[in-house]
Amino acid sequence: MMTQAGLAKVKSSVWLLAVGVGLVCNLSSVQAAEYIIDRKHTEIRFSWNHLGLSRQSGQFRDVIGRVFFDPDSPVGTTVDVTIKVNSLMTGVAELDRHLKSTAEYFNIARYPDIKFKSTSITVDTKTTATMTGELTINGTTKPVAMSVVWNFTGAHPLEKINPVYQGVFVSGFSARAKILRSEFGITRAIPLVSDEINISIETEMHRTAAHQTSNVKPPSPDEAPIADEQLNPSPAVKEKKATKPNKAVEVEALDPVKTEQEPAPQPPPKTDASSSKGLVSDIVDFFSTADGE
Question: Any residues with CB less than 8 A from the CB of 84 and at least 6 apart, and which?
Answer without folding.
Answer: 60, 62, 63, 64, 112, 113, 225, 226
